[in-house]
Specification:
Chain lengths: ~290, ~280
C-alpha cells in the first residue's frame, strides 16, 4: 500500500501548481469572457452579469483591437524572416572554423538573449534618444538631421522591432550551430571533389539539411512575435498613437489599466486560438514534409 | 596535368580559403562588437556625471568617472529592497525546481494510475502563452489572497511543463537497479531521490539551476502585475519605473540597468556551457 502512494507524493505538488496556473486559467478565461466582469466584482460578485458573446462582438468592432492585431501581424511578417535569416547566416559563418576565436565570438552574439529585457530596453531608449542619443549623434556626423526613433509612428515600429531582433538572434544562432554539427562532412567533401564552391555547397547541401532546424526556429519565433510584449511596453508603452501596441499590450492595458477583465479575457481567448491555429498549421506542414 | 601544377593549384585554393576565413573572422568580429556595444554603453554611461551623459557630442569613455549613481540607487532610491525581493523570488524559484525534479522522477521511474493523462497535461501547458493566462491567473491569485506578496509573484511560473519534461527525459536514463539497491539497503523513498537520483542528475540539474536563476532574476510581467505595493517591487519593476526619468538622468538609469545586468553577465561567464546548452534545449525561452 505504501508503495503505491509513493509516486503521488513526488508528482502531486508540481501537478497541483501546473493545473492551477497552467490549465485552470484557460477555463477561467473562457468563462469570464462571457461576463462583463470588471473591478467592481471585487466589491460584490452581484456586479458580474452573463453577457454571452457580447465581448467578442465588441472586440471585433474595436478599431484598437484591429490595430493591435495588424501591428502584431506586421511584426511577425517582418520579424520572423529577419531573425531566421540573420541567425542562420551568422551561424553558417560562425561554423566556418572551430578555432578559439570563432568559438569565443558565440558568447557575444548570445549575450542579449539572457539579459533582462527591461534593463536592455532602457539602454536602447537612451541610444534612441532624439536629443542626446548616440544614434542621432552618429547620424549627424554624416549630415542626417535628428531622427524621431520612438515618436514617429512608422519608425517606432521599426525601432521597437529592431531591439527584439537584436535580442532574438542569439538563441537561434546556438540552435543552428547545434544543428550544423549534424551535417555529414562526407557530403561536403564529395561536393568539393565535384568542384562545388563554398556558396554552392551551402545553398545546395547545408541549408536543405538544416530544414528541420529552420522549421523549428520559424515556429518558435512566430509564437514569440505573437506574444511580443516587453520591448514595446518599456520603450513606447504601445505608442505613439497605438503604433507599437501588440495584442499582448492591448490585453494588458484592457485588463490591468482599465480593469475590464471580461473584455480582456475575450481578447486573450482570441489570441490563444490564433496561436494554436498557426502552430497546428505549421505542424501539419511539417508532417506533410516528413512523408517524403 | 603534371603534379607540380596541381600542387600549385591546391596551394592557391588553400590560400583563397584562408583569405575568406580571415575576411569572415573580421566581419564576425565587427558584428560581435556591435551586438555587445549596448552593454558597453550602459556601463560607460553609468559612471558618467549627469552633465556628461547628456552632452552632445557624447564622450565614448567617461572623462570624470563617478560611482555616485550606484550610491544613489541604494540610498535615496529603494534598490536595496528591490534587490532583496528579487533574490527572494529567485530562491522561491529553486523550491519550484525541486518540485519539478520530483515530478520528473515520478514520470520517469514509476508506473501509476493517471500517469498518462498527467503527462499529457504537462506537455499541453508548454503550448499555452502567458498572455492568455495572465488575467485569470491574477484573479486566481487574488482569490487566494496572494496578490501583493512575493510568493504570489513567484507562483505562476514556479512550475513549467518543459522543465518537468527535461527532468523526465534525463532521469529515464538512470539505471533502475541502482534505485532498487538503495531501497534494499533500507533507504526511504525520499532519501533515494535525494541521495541517488538528484546527484546522478547533475548535468540536467546544473542547466536548470542556471536557467531558473536567470528567468527568476529577469522576470518582469508577474512582478509588474502582482506587486502593487512599492515594498514588493523587484529590480525589473523598479527599473521600468525609472524609465520616466530618462530625460532627466540617463546615468542613474544606466547604473540601475547595470545592477540588473552585471550579475547575469557574471553567471554567464562562469556557467557559459550550461547556459548555452540549456537555452538550446528549451528553444523558446
Amino acid at each position: 500500500m505504501r508503495n503505491r502512494l509513493v509516486p503521488y507524493f513526488f508528482v502531486t505538488p508540481a501537478m497541483l501548481l501546473l493545473i492551477t496556473f497552467g490549465i485552470l486559467p484557460i477555463a477561467v478565461a473562457a468563462v469570464i469572457s462571457t461576463t462583463n466582469m470588471n473591478i467592481s466584482a471585487f466589491a460584490s460578485w452581484n456586479n458580474v452579469d452573463f453577457v454571452g458573446l457580447d465581448n467578442y462582438a465588441k472586440l471585433f468592432a474595436d478599431s484598437d483591437f484591429w490595430q493591435a492585431l495588424g501591428n502584431t501581424g506586421l511584426f511577425a511578417v517582418v520579424g520572423v524572416p529577419a531573425i531566421v535569416i540573420l541567425s542562420l547566416g551568422t551561424a553558417l559563418l560562425l561554423n566556418r572554423s572551430q578555432s578559439w576565436f570563432f568559438r569565443s565570438l558565440r558568447a557575444f552574439y548570445f549575450l542579449p538573449a539572457i539579459t533582462a529585457i527591461v534593463a536592455i530596453s532602457l539602454v536602447w531608449s537612451y541610444l534612441y534618444n532624439t536629443q542626446f542619443g548616440l544614434l542621432n549623434y552618429l547620424f549627424s556626423l554624416v549630415g542626417v538631421p535628428p531622427v524621431q526613433w520612438l515618436s514617429d509612428p512608422w519608425l517606432a515600429k521599426f525601432s521597437v522591432a529592431l531591439v527584439a531582433v537584436w535580442r532574438g538572434t542569439g538563441l537561434n544562432i546556438i540552435i543552428f550551430l547545434a544543428a550544423l554539427q549534424g551535417v555529414p562532412k562526407e557530403y561536403l567533401e564529395a561536393a568539393s571533389l565535384d568542384g562545388a564552391g563554398e556558396w554552392r555547397k551551402t545553398v545546395s547541401i547545408t541549408v536543405p539539411l538544416l530544414r528541420f532546424a529552420i522549421f523549428f526556429v520559424s515556429v518558435t519565433t512566430t509564437i514569440a512575435w505573437l506574444q511580443f510584449f516587453d520591448e514595446p511596453f518599456v520603450l513606447t508603452d504601445g505608442g505613439p498613437l497605438g503604433a507599437t501596441t501588440s495584442v499582448s499590450i492591448f490585453l494588458y492595458k484592457e485588463g490591468f489599466r482599465l480593469n475590464q477583465f471580461g473584455y480582456a479575457s475575450a481578447g486573450s481567448i482570441v489570441l490563444f486560438v490564433i496561436i494554436a491555429a498557426i502552430t497546428l498549421v505549421q505542424l501539419r506542414l511539417r508532417r506533410a514534409d516528413d512523408e517524403y | 596535368m603534371s603534379t607540380e601544377t596541381m600542387a600549385g593549384r591546391d596551394r592557391s585554393a588553400a590560400a583563397r580559403a584562408t583569405g575568406l576565413t580571415l575576411l569572415i573572422a573580421v566581419a564576425l568580429g565587427i558584428g560581435a562588437l556591435i551586438t555587445a556595444f549596448p552593454f558597453f554603453w550602459m556601463l560607460a554611461t553609468s559612471v558618467k556625471p549627469q552633465r556628461e551623459a547628456i552632452d552632445f557630442p557624447p564622450t565614448i569613455l567617461p572623462q570624470q568617472p563617478t560611482l555616485e549613481w550606484y550610491g544613489q540607487l541604494f540610498t535615496e532610491l529603494d534598490f536595496g529592497r528591490y534587490l532583496i525581493n528579487t533574490v527572494i523570488v529567485v530562491l522561491i524559484g529553486f523550491v519550484g525546481l525541486l518540485l519539478m525534479a520530483m515530478a520528473g522522477y515520478a514520470f520517469a521511474k514509476f508506473d501509476f494510475r493517471g500517469r498518462r493523462w498527467m503527462f499529457f497535461l504537462v506537455l499541453a501547458t508548454m503550448m499555452i502563452p502567458v498572455q492568455v493566462t495572465m488575467i485569470p491567473t491574477y484573479l486566481i491569485l487574488n482569490g487566494m489572497k496572494l496578490t501583493n506578496t512575493l510568493v504570489g509573484i513567484a507562483l505562476p511560473t514556479l512550475v513549467s511543463g518543459f522543465s518537468i519534461f527535461l527532468f523526465r527525459q534525463f532521469m529515464s536514463t538512470i539505471p533502475t537497479e541502482m534505485l532498487e539497491a538503495a531501497r534494499l539497503d533500507g533507504a526511504g523513498e525520499f532519501r533515494t531521490f535525494w541521495q541517488i537520483v538528484l546527484p546522478m542528475s547533475g548535468p540536467i540539474l546544473a542547466v536548470q539551476v542556471v536557467l531558473t536563476f536567470i528567468s527568476g532574476w529577469n522576470s518582469f510581467l508577474w512582478p509588474l502585475i502582482i506587486a502593487s505595493d512599492q515594498k514588493l517591487y523587484t529590480l525589473s519593476v523598479g527599473l521600468a519605473l525609472l524609465n520616466q526619468q530618462l530625460a532627466v538622468n540617463p546615468s542613474l538609469q544606466m547604473a540601475a540597468a547595470s545592477v540588473m545586468v552585471v550579475p547575469i553577465l557574471v553567471i554567464f561567464i562562469i556557467f557559459q556551457r550550461y547556459v548555452m546548452q540549456g537555452f538550446a534545449l528549451s528553444g523558446l525561452k
